[in-house]
Amino acid sequence: MAALESPPPGTPSAMRHAFGSVLSALILLLIGVLAFSIRLFSVIKYESVIHEFDPYFNYRVTQFLSKNGIYEFWNWFDDRTWYPLGRVIGGTVYPGLTLTAGTIWWVLNSLNIPLSVETVCVFTAPVFSAFASWATYLLTKEVKGSGAGLAAAALLAMVICSIGIRLIFLLVNIMAMTLIGYWMSCTLFSIGVSFSGIFHKCLLIGFQNVSFLSKWLSLQVPSYISRSVAGSYDNEAVAIFALIFTFYLYIKTLNTGSLFYATLNAIAYFYMVCSWGGYTFIINLIPMHVLLCIVTGRYSPRLYIAYAPLVVLGTLLAALVPVVGFNAVLTSEHFASFLVFIIIHVIALVYYIKGILSPKMFKVAVTLVVSIGLVVCFIVVAVLVALVASSPTKGWSGRSLSLLDPTYASKYIPIIASVSEHQPPTWPSYFMDINVLAFLVPAGIVACFSPLSDASSFVVLYIVMSVYFSGVMVRLMLVLAPAACIMSGIALSQAFDVFTASIKYHLSGSSNSKDDAEDKTSTNNASKDDGSAGKTDKGEESAKERSSRKGKKKEREPADKPSVKSKIVKKKALVLPFEASIVALLLLIMLGAFYVIHCVWAAAEAYSAPSIVLTSQSRDGLHVFDDFRESYAWLSHNTDVDDKVASWWDYGYQTTAMANRTVIVDNNTWNNTHIATVGTAMSSPEKAAWEIFNSLDVKYVLVVFGGLIGYPSDDINKFLWMVRIGGGVFPHIKEADYLRDGQYRIDSEATPTMLNCLMYKLSYYRFVETDGKGFDRVRRTEIGKKNFKLTHFDEVFTSHHWMVRIYKLKPQKNRIRGRAKKLKLKTSSSKSAKKNPWI
Amino acid sequence: MAARIWILAVVVAVFLSLSAFSSAQDLQIVNAERRIDLSSQIVKAFLTLKVENIGKDPVAEMLLAFPPTQIKHLAMVQALAITGKKKKKTYLPLDVKPSEQPDAPNDAGFFIVSFATPLGPGETVKLEVLYILTHSLEPFPVEITQSESQLVYYHDSAVILSPYHIKQQTTFFKTPSTRVESFTSIEPANRAGKEIKYGPYEDRTPYSYTPVIVHFENNSPFAVVEELVREIEISHWGSLQITENYRLTHGGARHKGVFSRVDYQSRRSISGASSFNALLAVLPPRVNSVYYRDDIGNISTSHLRTGFRKSELEFEPRYPLFGGWKATFIIGYRVPLEDYLFEAPDDRRYLNFTFGCPLVETIVNKLTVKVVLPEGSKDPSAVLPFTVNQDLQVKYSYLDIVGRTVVVLQKDNVVPTHNVPFQVYYTFKPIYMLAEPFMLVSAFFFVFVASLAYVHIDLNIAKK
């Protein structure tokens, strides 16, 4: 910029440039800090602890990694889980998150900063959410810089996406307004005292920064907060950053056509593959966009460079991740990318030939190639279809299939359906998670269409796909969040542009008569801009070939420059009445304010609970229910280190991580039969259950029971899934036996099968003695069977609020009494028989 | 070096005592009274002796003998000389050292008490001896269920083991409750309420021993800390950070069979009588930033009361501890530096802090106190009123380069009476305090310089 405008050093413009970039860097930093700190509610309100279920597994893997090193980690066969099968962790885990946290821990420790692995894990997610908000900023900058940014630029003449430049023009803008004196002092003041002050004022009057806005939104969108609060140490924490960053690099490559960014893009994609199974979203979305571009006639060499290296390098790199391996070329999730890869080459060839041949020859060639090509294509497609159809799931994994067909999971795979994250979301959850963004997104989509560029079409495609996916699985709301942010950011920024431009137009219109000097400065600036635009036009081609680093700032600029000329024409066309724009502006700010309030509330209240410790506010203060850790601590200190603990799979990860005991099944639900075995045991009568557990070497059975304090997500409420999953493999378990007239109940109307199954007995054993009636506070009813004894299990531990109950399998009984007696008789007779000869 | 001198002193003392042994029979105990307090898991024995020199030469020391079963559980022996009559009694602490006696019968262990002034012929002196035994109550039955209360055996002798002739002696056992299952009867012996009295016995010869067993109920918390690591980190920026790692166990009769929460919650008085779930730690006054957690996170059941003389932290483990159950936890807190760090006259600094375990009425099997001195400290030396194993380590903490010197003090079998002040002396130059801020400042400086350079250097080959 400085080089292009070439102002002599020391001029106000250079000063403003320097000031602008410092200010923008500072704002970026502040936004990062905000993104980080809004996620610390969980640490402040609760404690610095790992949350929920899956994060405990990741935490345990990270511990192993930090203790044993990377090679041991790849070879790790975990015998603490899926007993007696075990699990090869190194080959079945997405290692991105653990490697990231492990690396952070290693770096910190080699600097002699003794942070524990746990602390590093807890704070990985907030740190990466700050990164993700920066990535969103970059992505939106890319999108608007090439397309819709122009429209904004026409009004304000200066909304160019490089922030530094933008800020200069911001100041120029301000000078053009009659408020110069006030603003200058404000600027000076802000240099000395507070940069944030000017940030707010800029935001109010003249500062339309799409990127900042979208970032502002993204850094605190609740649905993303829910997965990235401190302690939520899950794959998504780093994966969302990787996702957005990959998209950013893709758009960047698309805008620049630089092979450097294409390579970076493949590496970012590799990081994404390492981090999360959701990488298939990228590898399907990008081909779709490429296809869209080709179909709409937007093919360009830049598109080719953006796509072809990604497929080749990305697939090679993805195959390096053990959990993906050959799946990167074998499964149907990746087929779209290869198909588009072929298509883009055909198109590239066509364009190339078109360039060589004369139009007439080209037509002939086309007819020839198309007729042969169609036949070949048909054969290839037929072979592929036959191959794919020969596999039972058509080459798709269960989760992907349930995305394509939302009813698939509930029909065929109860395990996937039983996870609450995999349920379709409800409308309130949309409002809860993306709040006002839901209303801004359509406006953003409209804004993306005026004018439509490669980049903005990508964002449109992204939002459309993510809306669909989030509609299928509530978990994928997470993918929707950044898209919604980008869209709303664009919408808001466009609206701000229009309104502030109108205000400025009115103000400058009135100030013309007052202050000529001001007008001069503004025209001076305009002419300067025009001049620089002319210069840049010349240098445009060379600018593209410049080193990518410096090119970053420069080559977006030329695209915007020509618009400067047309700005005055457009300005008039889009002017709104002064009062209307003021009011609209205020309303928009209020909307933003409400959104901020909602986000802070959601972060503080809804998404900060670590779920292993519950709290309730009663009259005499905060009451803490820490039963899970109580019983895990009990298990870890008071049972033998090799004892096996059976529980429903939800608690598998926590048991291995917190109690360090071997479990039968855990949250990595890879073996349906094994889970069904546990489900069957839980739904069988005591004796049968004892036999199943004994055959699995189980020593302790852990059940979660919320009836005493009213904790709703306990095992009795999950029990029907156990029956369903168990019944799916062992047909003697029938769901109908547990339901009375299709209703699931545990009161006196319940079926005898229900009242005699192990889960019922273990949950309600001696429960009646607490209040004399056995009133279950979750089901709000008295239990059906009250006084019963356990014949095959011993209660060994029940936590303080009865939330976790641990039973021990009684040792195998001695042989039947009668026979034992007979044996005794025999031995005594034999003794006497022996005696005789000696006498 | 100091330790070596110390050992040398002990050796010399032992040597001297050997020579003194020959004059053992010059002493006799005129009157002995022993009161043994069995009300908690720590057995405290108070011995009042009236010693007379019947020989011709003055005697400088006397011996205390302990049976081999007691000597390994002996946590502490203290002796006081009493001078003056009833109201004007003054107590003078005497030097007590362990010693070896080659001709001791049946591996009896000995301690040497040095008199303040050698006892002249015909003179008498009154001594008050306190000794503390740990792990001396043996649960019987070894395993109990939740509803049973805990019964223990205590083995001792009805007469005092001593190398001297004892003219008259009495022994009292104080049990925690009136429930005494049985006690060995050596006439005259009788029981009244919580007290069992053996004696008076007249004219017992040296080394006479009459084993007795007392079987009684003891439901006091048998809280045993198997291992306690206390780390005291000195920061010259104004605070002392203490981190205590506990491995706690219930050392009483093992829990057998079922643990029923219903019984535990509704019939608290009869169910789980020997279990405990509340502990009390006495922390220094002005304590702040107290935390209580374990490997898997915070434990929310604790209350802190701060006072002028001491602070009390009342806390519960995650679950009630029954016999044989274990729990681990960490307590950490911070105290202001000026209360504990002082400057010695010889330009050194010294830390004056309490040794031992802050939990009340607990036995610590293995205590390790680590004093982490600030980076750059030199010549550390520890001063304690009793012998401990000393060691030096190096620890690397925040941005350390050379590491911090750690003085490691290790002692087995620690009881609350060991909670006495100890001192660690070291030299430290305050300039070292600035090392880390300087490092940070220079690191940031280089980052900015590098970015300045990056912005201004154009590495492009092609001309613009």
Automatic annotation (TrEMBL), chain B:
Keyword annotations from UniProtKB, A to Z: Endoplasmic reticulum, Membrane, Signal, Transmembrane, Transmembrane helix
UniProt membrane topology term: Single-pass type I membrane protein
One Pfam family, short name: Ribophorin_I
One GO cellular component term: oligosaccharyltransferase complex
Subcellular location, record wording: Endoplasmic reticulum membrane
Transmembrane segments: 438-457
InterPro entries in the record: Ribophorin_I
The protein's role, per its UniProt record: Subunit of the oligosaccharyl transferase (OST) complex that catalyzes the initial transfer of a defined glycan (Glc(3)Man(9)GlcNAc(2) in eukaryotes) from the lipid carrier dolichol-pyrophosphate to an asparagine residue within an Asn-X-Ser/Thr consensus motif in nascent polypeptide chains, the first step in protein N-glycosylation. N-glycosylation occurs cotranslationally and the complex associates with the Sec61 complex at the channel-forming translocon complex that mediates protein translocation across the endoplasmic reticulum (ER). All subunits are required for a maximal enzyme activity.
Quaternary structure, from the entry: Component of the oligosaccharyltransferase (OST) complex.
UniProt family annotation: Belongs to the OST1 family.
Name used for this protein in its record: Dolichyl-diphosphooligosaccharide--protein glycosyltransferase subunit 1
Organism: Eutrema salsugineum
